[in-house]
Write a structure and sequence with these properties.
GO terms for molecular function: dGTPase activity. InterPro entries: dGTPase-like, HD/PDEase_dom, HD_assoc_2, HD_domain. One of its GO terms (biological process) is dGTP catabolic process. Helix content is 49%, strand content 13%. It is of the alpha+beta class. The protein folds into two domains: 299 residues, Hypothetical protein af1432 (Orthogonal Bundle), CATH 1.10.3210.10; 94 residues, 2-Layer Sandwich (Alpha-Beta Plaits). The strands form three sheets. The protein has a four-stranded mixed beta sheet. Strands 5-9-6 form a three-stranded antiparallel beta sheet, with helices on both faces. The longest helix has 21 residues. The radius of gyration is 22 Å and the shape is globular.
């Protein structure tokens, strides 16, 4: 047994198997992967890691699991599998989390794919599973939606989201992610197809969750400056990879790194080391070195055009990019960005009142009906040296 003091939840107790898993190099790696990627560039306190978040997710999974156990819904073994699924959920996160993941997604390699690969192929992890008679298949079933416990780990209102909203709020100092965790955990249930079932007395806490989610997406996760640096880092790494680490986008390369345990050292510090090494590598083009220096010196791309809407209005991104290139701004210095971010799926929320379940649309007296389902963010970033000209052209 081991106790860890967490700045959000206080003391969190790990049992013997969890302690052994946490002590493996591949889990210790998460101490060196920042939870909110490059958010520290805007919010200096955002230095917390995937490690602390994973411990926090385990804690919340345990709290919810114990409530379900006391209600006779699950047994002790299922609580253990729920705890393990929450603990190991982030094992496959990329260096700087989602900053470089899109490069790998284009090759059909996601953090969930890497997580599953580690759970099935890591010799050290599987030796611990065998020692304690743990079935990796049961953990994967939870991840893949083949268990009634799945929604607790992956749904609109899961323990992962509960922990990161409150943790990211604390470390950024943005007081928009505070949740009434006690009431939410006490009143939430899950149905088929990851449906959220909330007791009517817990409605306010669920409203608070979704409002917090909307505000944190606007103020932190898609903050214009943070996102600009993530795009810049992604652009640098996509060009740099052929010089520093050819083959890194190959599935076989990543599989080998898991089986040889080198994956344990693929972290934020690894990526930064490649940036520093490249500055002194004569084979790396000067154009890439300039971008690296700009990134390290916090001289990132600037937003010259922005559309934020809760309605899917017609995009002007393409025509504005064409306008910029037509008037002399290099295409390599322009970074268009478009994304529709899901905030709430109202079709999957039911409200339980007087032993009856109602669809959300049947229950008018809740803010959930007016929270926007999707936020659309469209931006054009350009390298700093072209920002004034670009703004003048698009004004």
């Amino acid at each position: 047994m081991k106790k860890i003091f967490d700045e959000i939840h206080g003391y969190i107790t790990l049992n013997d198997i969890e302690t052994k898993l946490v002590d493996t190099p591949i889990f210790q790696r998460l101490r060196r992967v920042k939870q909110t990627s490059l958010a520290y560039i805007v919010y200096p306190g955002a230095m917390h890691t995937r490690f602390s978040h994973s411990i926090g997710a385990l804690h919340l999974a345990n709290r919810l699991g114990l409530r379900l156990y006391n209600e006779g819904v699950i047994n002790q073994e299922e609580i253990q599998y729920l705890r393990l699924a929450a603990l190991l959920n982030d094992l496959g996160q990329f260096p700087f989390s989602h900053s470089i993941e899109p490069l790998f997604l284009s090759k059909n390699i996601s953090n969930k794919y890497l997580r599953d690969l580690i759970i099935t192929k890591s010799q050290e992890i599987n030796e611990i599973f065998e020692e304690y008679s743990i079935s990796s298949k049961k953990i994967l079933d939870i991840y893949h939606g083949q268990s009634f416990l799945s929604a607790i780990i992956d749904s609109d209102v899961d323990v992962d989201r509960m922990d990161y909203l409150i943790r990211d709020s604390k470390h950024t100092g943005v007081q928009l992610g505070n949740l009434d965790l006690d009431r939410l955990i006490d009143t939430i249930n899950y149905g088929e197809n990851k449906t959220i079932i909330i007791l009517d007395k817990g409605l306010t806490s669920l409203e608070n969750f979704y409002i917090s989610r909307l505000h944190m997406y606007q103020s932190v996760y898609y903050h214009k400056t943070i996102l600009g640096y993530e795009i810049q880092l992604r652009n640098i790494f996509s060009q740099l990879s052929e010089f520093c680490c050819p083959g890194i986008f190959d599935e076989s390369f990543l599989k080998d790194s898991v089986t040889t345990n080198y994956f344990a050292y693929w972290d934020d510090e690894w990526l930064f080391s490649k940036l520093y090494e490249s500055l002194f590598d004569p084979s790396v083009p000067d154009s890439i070195k300039v971008k690296i220096k700009n990134f390290l010196d916090r001289n990132g791309p600037k937003v010259v055009y922005e559309e934020i809407s809760f309605q899917n209005i017609e995009s002007r991104i393409e025509e504005n990019v064409l306008k910029l290139t037509r008037y002399g701004i290099p295409e390599t210095a322009i970074y268009p960005f478009e994304e529709a971010i899901k905030i709430i799926d109202k079709s999957k929320i039911k409200i339980k009142t007087k032993n009856k379940e109602k669809d959300l649309k049947e229950y008018s007296s809740t803010l959930l009906n007016v929270i926007p389902s999707v936020i659309y963010i469209r931006r054009i970033y350009v390298e700093g040296m072209y920002s004034k000209k670009a703004r003048d052209l698009l004004s």
